[in-house]
Write a structure and sequence with these properties.
alpha/beta, Rossmann fold, two-stranded antiparallel ribbon, 36% helix, 15% strand, globular
């Protein structure tokens, strides 16, 4: 650590992004808050990243697939990963970033995305793309939380960030207000690829904050595949237990 960094830590010490406790190092969460987060670790579905129930004396293969993935014949995503389960604890972390202007937490959360997608970064992707928000919502919120995460992920992985090729052309009803099939219908034709030449033949990682029903990622993936993406991956902060 440089002298300037040491001085900065004295004046503005790193704090836990959840409880605000002063930390000795800039690692995002204090031990207590870290232990309260339900991080996703192996065993999980090799394809979609859905975690398996960890039972004593139950052994899993290195590339185990969940029932949903075994039944599918065609996949929009080559691999999907998430950092933690979406519950009351992780919900607060995401809401702090998304709606409470706690953008200082974006770098620490991006580090969690980096750890969750370790086997995806090994595939040598060409681009990292955030799930876009509509320009009217961007004006109101002033930032896209997924784009902030991509900014730090790009710096950490040295993979190019693309903020303009994938766009949201319809200002849809917030997904949190809907459920089930209504979510999928709400997002139909909501996304488009503005610059197909940036997408064709590329290996792309799509970044979002939460995967609940998967409708948003699904609709984004459809237009990226149509634009000629060679490989498509997704990494989200949280995923709902299903």
């Amino acid at each position: 650590m440089t002298l300037w960094q040491k001085l900065l830590n004295i004046l503005l010490p790193p704090r836990c992004i959840k409880c605000g406790k002063i930390l000795s190092e800039k690692n995002g969460l204090c031990p207590e808050c870290f232990n309260s987060v339900n991080f996703i670790s192996e065993p999980y579905c090799h394809k979609c990243g859905r975690p398996f129930v960890k039972e004593a004396n139950l052994k899993f293969a290195s590339k185990q697939y969940c029932g949903n993935c075994l039944q599918q014949k065609k996949f929009l995503f080559d691999l999907q990963r998430s950092a933690f389960i979406y519950d009351d604890v992780s919900k607060d972390l995401i809401l702090d970033l998304k709606f409470r202007d706690k953008t200082i937490s974006a770098e620490a959360l991006a580090n969690m995305l980096y750890m969750a997608g370790k086997d995806i970064w090994e595939q040598n992707p060409d681009l990292i793309i955030p799930v876009p928000i509509h320009r009217l919502r961007l004006i109101k919120r002033r930032f896209n939380q997924s784009a902030l995460l991509v900014k730090y992920l790009s710096l950490k992985t040295n993979i190019q960030a693309d903020y303009s090729s994938l766009t949201r052309k319809r200002n849809t009803i917030p997904q949190v207000q809907l459920s089930g099939l209504t979510r999928r219908k709400n997002l139909r034709q909501a996304f488009s690829v503005k610059y197909p030449h940036n997408i064709k033949g590329k290996k792309i990682v799509l970044i979002d904050d939460v995967e609940t029903t998967g409708s948003t990622l699904h609709e984004c993936a459809k237009v990226l595949r149509k634009a000629g993406a060679e490989k498509l991956y997704s990494v989200t902060l949280a995923r709902a237990e299903t």
